[in-house]
Design a protein that fits this description.
The chain is built from three helices and seven strands, in the order αβββαββαββ. The protein is of the alpha+beta class. Strand 4 and strand 5 form a beta hairpin.
Length: 150
């Protein structure tokens, strides 16, 4: 057998083996972990008779799909630091599926003049707890940060 045929056979075997190994790796890929990503928060102060708002958005994902996203905003000065267990009992965001695994979730809270006057100025955090359809969770203790001035 010539060296050229032997080398060609070895190269072909490596290529076929690499393709097969890649296929096995893709077939046995692990489940994606639940996650809360691409977060954003916007606070608009009330003006005159019009209410203000706090709006938090996030992409929540899990391989089983998203069941719920719980959200709470809190001032850093309060030292509140909510836990995952505590977030199970707060308001839910509205989630709309973007894909089978990911939902775009939006939480909006109206803020009156009276409420705005009582809000602590300075740094605020938003904590979020995503629950997947299979029961898995992703806890983001500081999913977003924003500031209140004035």
């Amino acid at each position: 057998m010539s060296k050229r045929i032997l080398v060609s056979s070895l190269i072909a075997a490596v290529v076929v083996g690499g393709v097969a190994a890649g296929g096995l790796a893709m077939a046995s890929s692990p489940d994606t972990e639940p996650a809360v990503k691409n977060t954003a928060v916007r606070y608009v102060a009330p003006s005159g008779p019009a209410a203000g708002s706090l709006t938090f958005t996030a992409d929540a994902s899990d391989d089983s799909g998203v069941r719920d996203l719980k959200v709470i905003a809190w001032p850093a000065s309060s030292k509140l630091d909510p836990t995952e267990a505590e977030l199970r009992h707060v308001d839910s965001a509205t989630c709309r599926p973007a894909t089978e695994e990911t939902s775009r979730c939006t939480y909006t809270l109206k803020v009156t003049q009276e409420e705005a006057a009582d809000l602590g100025k300075g740094t605020w955090y938003v904590s979020a707890l995503m629950t997947a359809k299979d029961g898995d969770t992703a806890f983001a203790p500081r999913a977003a940060t924003f500031g209140l001035t004035g």
